[in-house]
Design a protein that fits this description.
Helix content is 24%, strand content 23%. 50% of the residues are buried. A five-stranded mixed β-sheet has the order 13-12-16-14-15, sandwiched between helices. It has a four-stranded antiparallel β-sheet with strand order 1-7-6-3, with no helix packed on it. The chain is globular. The termini are far apart. It contains twelve helices and 22 strands. By secondary structure, the chain is of the alpha/beta class. This is Proline reductase-associated electron transfer protein PrdC. Pfam families: Complex1_51K, RnfC_N. Keywords: 4Fe-4S, Electron transport, Iron, Iron-sulfur, Metal-binding, Repeat, Transport.
Length: 441
């Protein structure tokens, strides 16, 4: 087994402070770093020796023989154990779960986010299918901690097998329900989940607590159950590896991958890269980032995608339409550079509101107005192509105007979608209307 690298910042907040030294022996579940402010504890995911302590990471050389046993958490209240376990939002956001659950939702709702919105990823749905009982136990614990009155599992209707599995178990559960979502990106954005399930549209600066709700990713719910019932620290991650792989085109789903494992190791477990490729993405096609093979898995890693090569624009002028639901301007410029395009114009989606930290948030995720004015700007600025990173609905509105202006459209996910044989994001073909399950469950 290769050396594992534990990044000291795997969460919202400040980096953790190492509490181990070089040469120290660690076990699976040994506390190796603690936050000094907003953050979450960091644990070793293997038995081994601390090889190096750097400013931004701890490197552990694992023993050849690895035991299943781990150092257990201290006994405490469920909330105390969740905080000690170092659980964060494992859908990608990375907000410390112990802080998120430290609220009084008397009469409110726990919204379990099972949307798994990024195309190609399927480890959340696999978890529902294979670990239904433990997932529901985690939701029950979240409900009890927050004093919520009910739990709603928000899941896309297309995942029929997982829905049926949930439905069968939830028939026995009081105050737990299913809400079916359409197959539209970004139904997994937490304000979209609140809007779809509770009918309340929050402002970009509002948290779900403004709707008497907490939105929590389905894998995070599982880790809550493990912390409270099994006294297990959070040191593993469920991951989908997909793309241009010798192991086949179907998604490779791995449960309980040790945090700190390299991207290269996960790709090799999937057969290795198949020939020439474009880039390796950590995360999903929309919000992921290009990484190298040495990049380590963190608590928020969801996907590892190996893509086909990019088309060549031969220096042609390009406009970038930056959307809150997709890649940042930096990511869009990176893609344009890899396509050998020349950026001549940049615009933001008309619903992209800029926050104090300069991040963008959509005013109404998944429900977007026309983008004709932005396309007109690109045309005036001399663009021949535009690269967009928009949600399903916003991409649909771009296609209503760009072709009429003889602008050729690329979506930032095109190379991924072509790799995994998924329809390109252009025209919206799925109804945005809410779907219901018979009997309210």
């Amino acid at each position: 087994m290769e050396n594992l690298q534990f990044l000291l910042k795997q969460h919202v907040g400040v980096p953790c402070r190492p509490v181990v030294e070089e040469g120290e022996m660690v076990e699976k579940g040994t506390l190796i770093a603690v936050p000094e402010g907003l953050g979450a504890n960091l644990f070793s995911s293997v038995y081994g020796t601390v090889k190096e302590v750097r400013e931004d990471r701890i490197i552990v050389c694992p023993d050849k023989m690895q035991k299943e046993e781990y150092v257990q958490l201290s006994e405490g209240t469920p909330l105390e154990m969740v905080k000690e376990a170092g659980i964060v939002g494992m859908g990608g956001a990375g907000f410390p779960t112990g802080i998120k659950l430290d609220v009084n939702l008397q009469g409110g709702t726990i919204l379990v986010n099972v949307a798994e919105c990024e195309p190609g990823l399927c480890h959340n749905i696999r978890q529902i299918e294979e670990q239904t009982d433990m997932t529901i136990e985690g939701a029950r614990i979240c409900k009890e901690i927050t004093k919520a009155s009910k739990v709603i599992f928000a899941i896309k209707a297309k995942n029929r097998h997982a829905v049926e599995k949930l439905r069968a178990v939830l028939q026995k559960e009081a105050d737990m329900y299913i809400h079916l979502l359409p197959d539209i990106y970004p139904m997994g954005e937490e304000r979209a989940v609140v809007r779809e399930c509770l009918g309340k549209l929050l402002d970009p600066v509002q948290l779900p607590t403004a709707a008497d709700a907490v939105v929590i990713n389905v894998e995070t719910v599982l880790r809550v159950a493990e912390a409270v019932k099994l006294r297990k620290p959070c040191f593993s991650k469920n991951i989908t590896v997909i793309g241009k792989l010798k192991g086949g085109e179907e998604p490779h789903v791995y449960m309980d991958v040790p945090v700190g494992t390299s991207v290269e190791d996960m790709i090799e477990r999937s057969g290795g890269i198949d020939g020439v490729y474009g880039e390796i993405i950590m995360g999903g096609p929309f919000t992921g980032r290009a990484v190298n093979l040495e990049e380590p898995v963190t608590k928020t890693t969801g996907g590892i995608i190996v893509t086909i090569d990019f088309p060549d624009l031969h220096g042609a002028p390009v406009g970038l339409l930056v959307c809150a639901c997709g890649g940042s301007e930096e990511r869009m410029r990176d893609i344009c550079n890899k396509m050998h395009g020349t950026v001549v114009s940049v615009a933001k989606c008309k619903q992209a509101a800029e926050m104090q930290n300069k991040a963008l948030k959509c005013e109404n995720p998944g429900n977007c107005p026309g983008q004709a004015a932005k396309c007109l700007q690109f045309k005036k600025d001399g663009a021949q192509y535009i690269i967009i990173g928009n949600c399903s609905d916003c991409s649909n509105t771009v296609m209503g105007s760009a072709p009429k202006m003889k602008l050729k459209v690329f979506h930032q996910t095109d190379h991924v979608m072509r790799t995994i044989h998924h329809p390109l994001y252009r025209r919206l073909r799925v109804s945005k209307q809410e779907e219901q399950l018979p009997g309210g469950k």
